[in-house]
Amino acid sequence: MLLHYLKIAFRNMRKYKNQTLISVVGLAVGFTCFSLATLWIRYEMTFDSFHKNAKQLYVVYRPDTFKPSGYSRSTPNPLAAYLKETFPEIANATSLTPSYSGEKVILDGVEFPALYVRSDSSFLRMFDVKIVEGSMDFLINSNHLAITREKARQLFGYENPIGKTVNNGWRDFTICAIVTEMHKRSTYAFDFIGAFRDTPGWNFFGENTIIELISGINVEAFEKKLYEHEIRRDNGHISKMTITPLTKLRYTDPDIAREVKFQHILIFSLSGLLVVLCSLFNYLTLFISRFRMRQKELALRMVCGA
């Protein structure tokens, strides 16, 4: 019986070559595009989801008329400590200078790509980054850096990197500690971490403020409370602040550099799905057409007495 069905299927494919070719190619291309786009979307949407407290981590935004979206995550350095002291809903808060593409480290005259993050000890607690070996001087002395185990192996092999000197193209730094790395699928991934070069005040908007909310609180009520809060410090003024989940930052912040916009990936995925539907519709049309032809043939045979 199965062999009989296969024979009929191959005969129909030979008889309707053009429509069969369109359906098969359309389904293959459509499923391939849709599958690849789905994997890409999943990759973008799982950034920073590996943190143990990912659901409680939020990035603070402030109004910025120079940005197309009207908001920016560039905030003053003291904001993190201020928010933690002011709002009991916040369990932890940290201010950090994020890494930027194009940064490098120079070792023995050879350049390597590198990611630098500058923060304080609260960053280690919030993101579960641990010191494997060395001291915490990198959180106090801006001339010292901590290096991840992965980057240490890349630069120094099996040698102990502590005490080694590296250059970022501008100045020399001494490595004083080895820390656990953070997953590369993070907006704040790093190879080196160090202290702030100075202590900027409320008038300098160059850091990112990340807060960890207490589990179980009403996030909407907190957002409203934060939005209505107004800060005036040292001629600095901040109001109408909002928050964005850290896990959504990758595909919602227009300032994050990416080769392809998230909206384009969605369009690509929908296009693949549309091709699949068109191919299925083409096959359905062919099936209905053959069914009607078969009905006419049977009716003709009945009239002729066959």
- Total domain units: 3
- Judging from the principal axes of the Cα atoms, what is the shape? elongated
What is the typical, i.e. mean, pLDDT? 81
Indicate the proportion of strand residues: 15-25%
Low-confidence stretches: none
Compressed to H and E, one letter per element, the order equals HHEEHEEEEHEEHEEEEHEEEHH
Q: Output the CATH class name of the largest domain.
A: Alpha Beta
Give the biggest beta sheet.
6 strands, mixed
Work out the helix count. 8
SS-based class: alpha+beta
The CATH architecture name of the largest domain reads 2-Layer Sandwich
The whole-angstrom Rg is 29 Å
The strand count comes to 15
* Residue share in helix: 25-40%
End-to-end separation: 26 Å
Write down the CATH topology of the largest domain. Alpha-Beta Plaits
